[in-house]
Amino acid sequence: MTVPRIRFTFWKAVFLAIMAAGVYCTFLRFFRGLGASTNLSDQFPWGLWIGFDVMCGVMLAAGGFTLTAAVEIFNIKRLHSIVRPTILTAFLGYLLVCAALMYDLGLPWNIWHPLVMRNPHSVMFEVAYCVMLYTAVLAMEFSPIVFEHFNLQKPLRIIRRVMVVFVILGVLLSTLHQSSLGTLYLIMPNKLHPFWYSPLLPVFFFLSAIAVGLAMTIFESSMSSKYFGRELELSILRDLGRALVVVLALYGILRFEDLYHRGVLKLVFISGYEQRFFLLEMFLSVVAPLGLLLVPKIRESGKGLYLAAVLTLLGFVTNRLNVAITGVENAVGARYTPKWTEVVITAMFVALGFAIFGFVAKYLPIFPEEKVHIPALREPEARFAELAVPVHAGD
Amino acid sequence: MRRRGDLETEMSKGILYDATLCIGCKQCEQACATENGLPYDDRIAAQEFTSARKYTAIMIKDDKFMRKLCMNCDDPACASVCPVGAMKKTALGPVTYDKSRCMGCRYCMAACPFSVPKYEWDKAVPGVRKCIMCSKRVADGKQTACAEICPTGATKFGDRDELLEEAKKRIHDNPGKYMPHIFGETEVGGTSVMLLSSIPFNAFGFRTDLTERALPLYTYQVLSRIPDFVPLFGTLLGGIYWITHRREDVAEAEAKEKEHNGGGR
Fold this sequence. Notes:
The complex is a heterodimer. By secondary structure, chain A is mainly α. Chain A has helices spanning 2-32, 34-37, 48-60, 63-73, 83-104, 113-116, 123-149, 153-183, 201-227, 234-261, 273-293, 296-300, 302-332, 340-363, 379-388. Chain A has one domain (19-388): Formate dehydrogenase/DMSO reductase domain (Formate dehydrogenase/DMSO reductase fold). Helix content of chain A is 73%, strand content 0%. Chain A starts with a helix and ends in a 7-residue tail after the last helix. Chain B has helices at residues 6-9, 27-35, 42-46, 77-81, 107-111, 135-139, 145-149, 160-173, 216-223, 226-264; strands at 13-18, 57-61, 64-68, 87-89, 95-97, 118-119, 128-129, 155-159, 193-196. In chain B, strands 8-1-9 form a 3-stranded mixed beta sheet. By secondary structure, chain B is α+β, with helices and mostly antiparallel strands. The N and C termini of chain B lie far apart (80 Å). Chains A and B meet through helix 1, helix 2, helix 4, helix 7 and helix 8 of A and helix 4, helix 5, strand 6, helix 9 and helix 10 of B.
C-alpha cells in the first residue's frame, strides 16, 4: 500500500512544478506577447499550441461522441458503464481546448467576434461555432452527473427526457468539426506536403477521431482501474478493441488508396525528412496497433489492449503534428521547434486535464454502476455514493 | 459592403510591375513607408524581404530586380479563411484588413499562398500587417503611393484588364526580353498585382507551381455541402435511435405479455 502513496506524492510534486512553471509562462505570454513566449514566426504562424493543444485536444476528446453514439443511438447497452468517464474526458478536453486557444490567439479578448461577425465561407468560422455549441452540449450531457450528486430529481427527469436531442446534436456537431479540422488545410494545396494534403483530409480526420475515441476510452478505463481501484471491464475493452481494429483497418486502407490514386506512393520509398515522419506516423497509428490487435492473445489481455491504445494515440498525435508542422516546413522554408514556454503551457494543460479528471471522478458519480472492489477505507463512502445514485440502467 | 456582382460593373484596379524597367531606386519602398506611417532608414532599405514594418521590398539578383508586395488576389485565401471577415476583397481591387474585427487566429497567414501577411509578434496587442494596395487612395480615385512615385514607370497603376493587355503586348512586341509569363494573370485564380520579369520568377522565391484555381474553392466545395448534410445525417441518427430503441420496446412488451400469460395460468 505504500507504493501508491509515494507515487501519489511524486505525481503531486510534478503537478505543482508544472503549474508553477505554467503560471510564469502565462505571465510571459500575456505581458511580453507571442514573440517573446513562442518560436512562432511569419513563416510559421501556427505551432505547438494549434498543432497539439487544439488539433490533438479536440481529437483526444472524441471518445465522448463515439461512445454516446454507440450507447445512446446504436443502443449498445453493454458499453453503458463507460459512457460517463468519456463524457467527462470530452467536456474537460473541450474546456481545455478553449482555454489553450486563449493563449494562442493574438487578441484573445476578441474570441467572441465570430458570434456577431460571421464569415460562413471560413472553415475556422464553422469550427468555432461547432466547438462552442458542442461544449454547451457536453455541459448538458454532463449535467445529470451533477444533478445526481446533489439529488435534484426534477431537473434530472427533465434532462433525461430531452437527452436524446442533445446526443444527436452532439454526434452531428462532432462529425462536422472533427472533419473540419482537416478541411482547414484544404486551402493549402501548395503548402502542405502531398503525404498529407488530400481532398480526403476531412474523412481522414473524422475516421481517426473515431479510432482515437475508442483508444482513449481503453486508455482511460485502464488508468481508472489502476488509480481508482476500479475493476477492469475487460469484456467491454475487448469489444472496443475489436471496433478499433475495424476502424484502423478502414483508415489504413483509405490512406493507402488515397496515396496510390494521387501517385504519391513512390515517395514513400524515397528517403527524406517528410518520409521519416510519415513512416513513423503510419507505424504508430496503423501498423503497430493493428499488428498487436490481430493477435488474439494480445487482443484479449488488458495489457495488450492498453499498449495498442497508447500506440494508436501516439500515432494520431504524430499525424496531427505532421499535418500542422512537419508537412508545411519545406514549403515555407523554415523549421519549427517549440520554445520551452510553449512546451510548459502545453504540459500545464495536459496536467490540468489529468488532475481535474481525478478530482471530479473522486467527488461526482462518474462510475455509477461500478462494483467497488478495493480500498476498504473508502467503502462506506462508495456505498453512500451508490445509494445516492438512482438506478440508471433502464433510461 | 459591395456584392460580388458589382465587380463586373466597376473596373477593378491593379498594379503592373515590369522588372525590366526597374532601376532599384527603392523610392516605392520609401513612399509605401510614408503612406503607411512606417519608419524607413538605410537599415530597413537594405532588407530584401517584407515584414510587419515593411510592406513592399525590392529584391536584387545580380543586376535584376523584383518587387515583393501583397498580390491582392482576385479571390483571396486570406479573406475566405478569416472567421470574422477582417480581411476583405474590395470591388476596386485592394484586399483590406480591419484590426477591430481580428481575433488573431493567423489563419490568413497560414493560408496565403505567397506568405504575405505578417504579424506584430513583439506587440502585446498585435495585428496582421500587409500591403493593402493603398485602398483609401484607390477609393479616392488616386494611384497607389508606389506607382505614383515610380520614376521609370516600372510600377504602373490602372485598370487590371488594361494592364493585362499591356503586359501581353510588351511580351509580344519584345521577343526574348521577357519570360513568357505574367505572374498573377492566372496564379490562384488571378491577382490584382501582376509581375513581368526577364529571368525566371523562382529566382526570386516565387512559386511557379501554384494552382490556377482560386484557393477558396478547395474549402468551399466541402463547406457548401454542410447545409445539405445536417438534415440528412440528423435524420439518419434519429432514425437509427428510433429503430434500435423500437426493438427494445417490442422485446419489453413481449416479455411483459409472457409474464402476464405465465401468471394467468
